Amino acid sequence: xxxxxxxxxxxxxxxxxxxxxxxxxxxxxxxxxxxxxxxxxxxxxxxxxxxxxxxxxxxxxxxxxxxxxxxxxxxxxxxxxxxxxxxxxxxxxxxxxxxxxxxxxxxxxxxxxxxxxxxxxxxxxxxxxxxxxxxxxxxxxxxxxxxxxxxxxxxxxxxxxxxxxxxxxxxxxxxxxxxxxxxxxxxxxxxxxxxxxxxxxxxxxxxxxxxxxxxxxxxxxxxxxxxxxxxxxxxxxxxxxxxxxxxxxxxxxxxxxxxxxxxxxxxxxxxxxxxxxxxxxxxxxxxxxxxxxxxxxxxxxxxxxxxxxxxxxxxxxxxxxxxxxxxxxxxxxxxxxxxxxxxxxxxxxxxxxxxxxxxxxxxxxxxxxxxxxxxxxxxxxxxxxxxxxxxxxxxxxxxxxxxxxxxxxxxxxxxxxxxxxxxxxxxxxxxxxxxxxxxxxxxxxxxxxxxxxxxxxxxxxxxxxxxxxxxxxxxxxxxxxxxxxxxxxxxxxxxxxxxxxxxxxxxxxxxxxxxxxxxxxxxxxxxxxxxxxxxxxxxxxxxxxxxxxxxxxxxxxxxxxxxxxxxxxxxxxxxxxxxxxxxxxxxxxxxxxxxxxxxxxxx
Length: 603
Description:
Helices cover 56% and strands 8% of the residues.
């Protein structure tokens, strides 16, 4: 018995595949479905999706794959960008333009590359709006609806637990529209990694019981399936070797494959024919098995895989070569060894691009790197990518931000590196710009996360610029005002306090305060109407609104305005002049109130 062919057999999932195939048939007839397949790492979710993809391709459907990336600097909507990019690249340009229709401008906010396909595409509307995300989601759905009228579409979104929140929201939107579309969406996720507040958890709670959604949970293989999986179909559950592997791995296919390969490399598998001569010892946990397997590789291959793991789930050979500072031929030998033993896969349709065969392989490698070395590698990667993207950084800001931020020392005062300040400034700059880009892409949650990265680096920068911090807080508050008013209040309030503390109202007044206007307008419009009914004196109404501003935004002296009113002989009511305690208050009052509210009250 050898380890050759282990894990190549598709076994133990026939019932699930039959059900998915039936749903695919229904989708091809115009009754689309969303299927979410959950399970622990290595349980076979991606393999099941691959088998269905093969069936869909054989039946003439378009198969579009996208994968969630975690901690690798992926741009917003990355799983959808990958899937739509696959469609665009495989479809005649004229057909793509026709199916995009008027929604091309909206989708270009998520996929700027569409402007290369349609040079005369109208510019996106300036700034964000409450309807912008709806238009983006609706236009994407319309594109898929139009395209599926020619050929049914299977969209596979792998590793949704690692997808960004905007991608999950787009999935939730599309799921409500699939009933009359020839589109099936198959999503996979690690159920053990979902928290109660994870966007996918909330999505499952919201649509999991809808008729158009099917939830599927995968568990370990049965003992007889394990026997077939490892190439011993003639053996039964009573076979000592099969039983030992099954019990040690709980039927997890990835664990089984890695364990049997490890036993083979240790020379134990050759003695398996004599069950009395073999005592199967499988390390506890699949990561331990993977770690042992990696340890048997050539040291140069281990080094190359370690660098690749820090780059991300997928990497280009040229970038890896530059980070490793090795000749292409040398690094190619290491990569070929990793491919041969099944730790890396060639990315289909690419030239010189590879990805890890499973996220657990990359995670195991990454976790083994000491923090100080990890920061140095991220710094090397950041430098290589910055040079590579010179002049075209806009499409790679999140990736650059991720690596530069990861290269920052956690405590500024503990480093003697003279270049560290430059790394810090680049981390701040790229994170800030990536946040702005995400906001323009209507990926509000990603923008907030990137602004938080920027603020975190500012906190350890040694000499944080209060004006810059206030500016980032205002940017974050502006985005938060679309989805979380409480968070927006906190960000805008902190920015105002900074402006007061440094005595520089321009720190907030020089910026568009649309977020503050939205926070106030949404709450004060109703309050104003109530006050008009309860307080007939306009001066008293104004005082009540100003008090509410102070209380709700958590600032003292936010926009302290006094109005003095008295009746003259003609019975007319006059208002005294407004006063502000300092220049920051005046700037903030003008910016926050704006024409939408302040002018209505102050006349």
